[in-house]
């Protein structure tokens, strides 16, 4: 009897560990000096995380953890100030969007790896991105269910005749003078 209870508890804990691992993904990034160099534009770091087919049932949050910085040189600061007068935040702002290809979602994010800490401009050179997901709220889920189906967005028929492997070529008949 006690052995069955222990197995059940171990099984539940294993299941919870797997559930937590799938709900939170972590990725480490190390940027080189070339990755953060400023020339005529500010550096941009981008990455894509595959979400799979069930991407729409969750809301995704990204967080920067364990950031490491290096100070900008005077030349880099001069280039930064020539490009923008904006004072960078203490941590970069993460811009994210979900894209869909072949019915699978991908979370794309980007950031400018420049910060200002203690009055000094610095480059973010090493960090971890933590992805957490949580279920979509009931109100959003209901709104998604009542949205028009994709097939109802378009006309049921086309005004063009069937192509049967032919191409349509546009040739103007009048010249423009």
Write a short abstract of this structure.
With 177 residues, this protein is of the alpha+beta class.
Describe what this molecule looks like in 3D.
With 177 residues, the chain is of the alpha+beta class. The chain has a domain at 23-145: Immunoglobulin-like (Sandwich). Helix content is 23%, strand content 36%. Strands 1, 3, 6 and 7 form a four-stranded antiparallel sheet that branches. The protein has a three-stranded antiparallel sheet with strand order 2-5-4, with no helix packed on it. The radius of gyration is 25 Å and the shape is extended. Residues 18-23 have low confidence and may be disordered.
**Biggest sheet features:** 4 strands, antiparallel
- So what's the overall shape? extended
CA-to-CA gap between the ends? 95 Å
CATH architecture of the domain at 23-145: Sandwich
Please give the CATH class of the domain at 23-145. Mainly Beta
CATH topology of the domain at 23-145: Immunoglobulin-like
Helix content: 10-25%
* Rg over CA atoms: 25 Å
Low-confidence stretches: 18-23
State the total count of DSSP E strands: 7
Residue fraction in strands: 35-45%
Continuous helix count: 3
Quickly give the structural class: alpha+beta
Return the average pLDDT rounded to an integer. Answer: 78
Order of helices and strands: HEEEHEEEEH
């Amino acid at each position: 009897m006690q052995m069955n209870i222990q197995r059940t508890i171990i099984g539940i804990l294993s299941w919870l560990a797997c559930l937590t691992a799938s709900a939170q993904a972590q990725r480490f990034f190390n940027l080189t000096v070339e990755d953060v160099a400023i020339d005529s534009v500010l550096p941009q770091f981008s990455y894509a995380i595959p979400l799979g087919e069930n991407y729409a049932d969750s809301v995704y949050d990204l967080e920067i953890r364990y950031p490491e910085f290096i100070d900008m040189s005077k030349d880099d600061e001069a280039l930064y100030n020539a490009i923008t007068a904006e004072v960078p935040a203490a941590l970069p702002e993460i811009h994210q969007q979900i894209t869909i290809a072949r019915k699978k979602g991908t979370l794309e994010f980007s950031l400018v790896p420049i910060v200002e800490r203690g009055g000094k401009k610095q480059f973010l050179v090493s960090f971890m991105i933590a992805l957490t997901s949580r279920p979509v709220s009931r109100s959003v889920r209901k709104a998604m269910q009542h949205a028009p189906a994709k097939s109802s967005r378009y006309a049921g028929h086309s005004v063009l005749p069937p192509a049967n492997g032919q191409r349509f070529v546009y040739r103007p008949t009048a010249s423009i003078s």
